[in-house]
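Tutorial handout. Part one gives the primary structure; part two gives the three-dimensional structure as tokens.
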Amino acid sequence: MKSLYQRQFVIMAGVILVSFALLGSAFITLSYNYTVQEQRDSILHNAVYVADVLGDAVTSDTDLQGFVLKASRVRPTLESVAVVTDATVLLATQEGQILLAVDGTGEISDLTNVRIPSGVVQTIQASGSFSAMSSLGGTFSENRYVAGSPFYYEYMGTSLPAGIVLIAAEAANLTEMWRAFASIFLFTSVIVMLIAFITTSVTSLKMTRPLKDMAEAVRKFGHGEYETRVDCNGRCDEVGELAEAFNAMADSISKAEHRRSEFVANISHELKTPMTTIAGFAEGILDGTIPQEREREYLKVISSETRRLSRLVRKMLDLSRLQSAEYVTAQEQFDISEVMLRVLVSLETKVNAKHLDVDTQLPEDPVEVWGDPDAITQICYNLLDNAIKFSYEESTLGISIVTRAGKAYVSVRNQGDTIPPEELPLVFDRFHKTDHSRSEDRDGVGLGLYIVKYIVEAHGGTVTAWNDGGLVFEISLPCEEELYA
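Part two.
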């Protein structure tokens, strides 16, 4: 199978060769025809010129001998034309009998016993000119470019035919000139094609190299080398954009793999403690290490740890739905105040257990927000449950909702131990627990606030936390569909 580089090079080379072949054929054909036509026109023009000169030299004496004697007066002109055009000038009678022949060197040729073919003579007399490749019936050993024209003399105010003049130029001269011209063109074409091939090769190689690098990077990714990146080399074209997109994808995959590894490590840690406790107490009961009168006490611990495992699995399932982008689904407008009150009522037992006072600062009018009611209900439950859990006994739990700039801001405040400022940004991380909470929160698994952050951001909102005589969590949700979109 050919590589992309080979295909690109073959296609470009083929296009260049075909283009030059067509261009060269057209150029050579046109230049040859132009050169031949120009030569023919030049020879015919010279023949007409000589015919005019001869017409002025011929008198009314039509005697053949007198005609030749008078024509010899223009011999210098004939010799000049023959030398300049490097051709043979023939002077003949009306019947085609050659009277005088001057070659390209200015020498007089002995062709007085030669007659011009009758067909050439008839063509000149009928059309007034002749132009063709011909040996003139064997007058010359090879074909030449021949042009002829009649000349006349004046007799009593009337122009009468006196004879014909022909100029024959060797084709070899024209062929050599055209060959030299074609050689220059072909030489130039070869140089241009070599430059084009080299440029095409370098360009194709430069274009395909990042693709090879990306293929190699994909293979390395398949073997777990997630730090591999493609060097864009500062390219600003489509290949450079593809390399940048690949690097962005590689960064995303690397981060996802890091989060996965961290997630597995955290899960392993969270599962290890309750499972060790359950296994240890169960074995103690079975082998009689734990006294029979204390078995009920330890069975309660086993039951508690089992429920904790169940909560952890449930949270993990919630997290899995979130990360599969299937959790936030239906989008509609609903009253966030009603949702908060409904969740607060569901937690009434926990509120009463700690003898908390609830301070609600909710608007009289409904506060409509856009989102998934079920998902928003869960984040309200997580926030309130977390606030109740870490509130002091007989303290106050605060809930407030305000609207600003097209968004609803929901705040949940408790009175309890604060979190060190350096740990505040970490409270929304998966499985994060402060040292203080780790010792007391046996029911928590460290996923509640992470789920809150994930759902809020999926709705286009934000979530923040700060210390203020306790902990304050505030979320923002869009009140308009356009803001959510």
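Part three, for discussion. The two ends are 47 Å apart (CA to CA). The mean pLDDT is 78.
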